[in-house]
Design brief:
Number of strands: 15
Shape: globular
Strand order of the largest sheet: 9-8-7-10-11-14-12-13
CATH topology of the largest domain: Rossmann fold
Radius of gyration: 19 Å
Distance between the termini: 8 Å
Structural class: alpha/beta
CATH class of the largest domain: Alpha Beta
Largest sheet: 8 strands, parallel
Number of helices: 10
Strand content: 15-25%
CATH architecture of the largest domain: 3-Layer(aba) Sandwich
Order of helices and strands: EHHEEEEEHEHEHEHEEEHHEHEHE
Helix content: 25-40%
CATH superfamily of the largest domain: NAD(P)-binding Rossmann-like Domain
């Protein structure tokens, strides 16, 4: 029997790798550009709901990135009450495979990958779609992906003002303390959505609502702003897309009609946002096939659902770096 071995990286290994901001952004932007060139396969995510969506569910993401030579499947739980158990709301495992033979190549704790790649997609969206002189960030939400949203956006923009808000005071205060320590700048903690978002240059909505609730008011968005809503349940007013000069998504296959969840779910299902009215997918912009922001006056919305290709890309980057550093374990498969 031929011996087969799998690289295994647990959460401790992933933390010790300490991927830099640039390493994260580079890996994710390359995967986006590959997507724009048609060199990836991204299957729409599927869901497993054990009991009810009120408790939580599993997302199953499947993708292939040709340039990396990996196919991957990530399973990530999304359970809103995990904080009561001292756990992050999202825990994930990524499996990487050889696309030529199907041989399993790696198993990675993907909890950090989920957070990092989500923040990277938000930041790369801003790189191409936000005003270059953006100085004020408003961010609703304090989950794991939120940290990487703010960290990687600030890496690109070095904001003069960062405002944060989340439903629980202890959550938003701890979030702000972590950001202040890591970014070395004052974070403004707000106790309501309006003070956090109104007239910001970049507005991020990463809330955890139990059901769609229009808490994000269209009137708070100034001309020329960049808006990124990606809560599982929509927090938007229905007319938000009416003021947008461009609407961009990460992958229409995951955002189109008939898919559950997402910030623009109602907008798509009721025909307000369609494949024809869409400006572009982010990958088309990243590879130069479509323009990003073309003037300071454009108000732009970017909705991302999460791309399996970016999970594969970050997982591959981690496996490569771990081998170079001598981290992780080798598990015999057969």
């Amino acid at each position: 029997m031929q011996e087969l071995w799998i690289d295994y990286l647990n959460a401790i290994d992933v933390a010790e790798l300490a991927l830099t901001d640039e390493e994260i952004l580079t890996a994710v932007e390359k995967a986006l550009a590959d997507q724009g060139r048609g060199e990836t396969v991204i299957e729409p995510r599927v869901h497993l709901v054990p009991e009810s969506s009120d408790k939580g569910h599993f997302n199953v993401l499947r993708g292939y990135v040709k340039s990396l030579g990996y196919a991957g499947v990530k399973v990530v739980g999304d359970f809103v009450d995990n904080y009561k158990h001292g756990l992050p709301s999202e825990l994930a495992v990524l499996n990487l495979f050889d696309p030529e033979t199907g041989i399993p190549k790696a198993i990675v704790d993907a909890t950090a990958i989920t957070d990092m790649r989500t923040g990277a997609v938000t930041a790369i969206g801003a790189k191409h779609l936000a005003r270059k002189d953006s100085k004020v960030l408003g961010h609703v939400g304090a989950r794991g992906t939120s940290y990487w949203n703010v960290r990687l956006l600030d890496h690109l923009y070095d904001f003069e003002e960062i405002r944060v808000h989340s439903r629980r005071p202890e959550s938003r205060n701890a979030f702000a303390e972590r950001l202040e320590q890591d970014l070395g700048k004052k974070i403004i903690v707000t106790d309501n959505w309006e003070d956090c978002l109104k007239d910001a240059d970049i507005l991020i909505e990463a809330s955890r609502l139990p059901e769609p609730t229009p808490l994000f008011k269209t009137s708070w968005v100034k001309k020329g702003a960049f808006v990124v809503p990606y809560g599982t349940m929509s927090a938007l007013e229905f007319d938000l897309t009416d003021i947008m000069d461009k609407v961009v998504v990460d992958d229409w296959g995951q955002c189109g009609p008939g898919r559950p969840y997402g910030a623009l779910r109602r907008h798509v299902d009721e025909g307000k946002v369609t494949e024809e009215t869409l400006h572009a997918e982010m990958g088309q912009i990243a590879c130069g096939a479509r323009p990003g922001r073309e003037s300071d006056d454009e108000t732009i919305l970017f909705w991302h659902r999460g791309l399996s290709s970016t999970d594969v890309a970050l997982g591959a980057a981690m496996v490569d770096k771990a081998r170079a550093m001598g981290l992780g374990q080798r598990l015999r498969f057969r």
